[in-house]
Amino acid sequence: MAEDIETKYYCGKCEQEIPSTTTVCPHCGSDLKQVHRRIEMKINAQLPPMQAQLRAKQERPGIKKALMEILQRSKISGTTKRPAEESFVVDRTGQKTRVFHKVQELDEHGNWVTVHNEEKP
């Protein structure tokens, strides 16, 4: 898998781009251990057809889990034996963790049809 990852870091207070290794914002002087740091990742990749996975992480003091996790995969439906796309999204950006699960299948006309769409609080 060939990929190119571009990562940029931003101060949570002044929103200016900062070096990844700094602990104090060179623009506003904020202590980045106290202020949330925003990380922006751009992934240019040629992904294998079976599975693509992305983890977006924001550095937050004392928290190790990613804010957003996305898993997408291609499969063959167990009941209809048609090609299907399945995606899971775990969203920890709000007060509560939410999990989204969606499955789409190709119908006889070649259109993607949602066969399962669920959100768990």
Task: Show the helix and strand layout.
Layout: E1 3-11, E2 17-18, E3 37-45, E4 51-56, E5 68-76, E6 83-91, E7 98-106, E8 112-120
Antiparallel strand pairs: 1-2, 1-3, 4-5, 5-6, 6-7, 7-8
Mind explaining what this structure looks like?
The structure is a single chain. The protein is mainly β. It folds into two domains: 1-46, no CATH class; 48-121. Helix content is 0%, strand content 51%. It is built from no helices and eight strands. It has strands at residues 3-11, 17-18, 37-45, 51-56, 68-76, 83-91, 98-106, 112-120. A five-stranded antiparallel β-sheet has the order 4-5-6-7-8, with no helix packed on it. A three-stranded antiparallel β-sheet has the order 2-1-3, with no helix packed on it. A hairpin with a 5-residue loop joins strand 1 and strand 2 (17-18). The protein is elongated. Mean pLDDT is 76; it is low at 47-52.
Overview features:
single chain, 121 residues, mainly beta, 2 domains
Number of helices: 0
Total DSSP E strands: 8
Q: DSSP strand (E) fraction?
A: over 45%
Global shape = elongated
How would you sum up the major sheet? 5 strands, antiparallel
The H/E string reads EEEEEEEE
**Alpha carbon gyration radius:** 19 Å
* Count of individual domains: 2
State mean pLDDT (0 to 100 scale).
76
Based on helices, strands and strand pairing, what is the structural class? mainly beta
Biggest β-sheet: strands ordered side by side in the sheet: 4-5-6-7-8
Helix content: under 10%
Q: Give the termini distance in whole angstroms.
A: 34 Å
> Which residues form runs of ≥5 with pLDDT under 50?
47-52
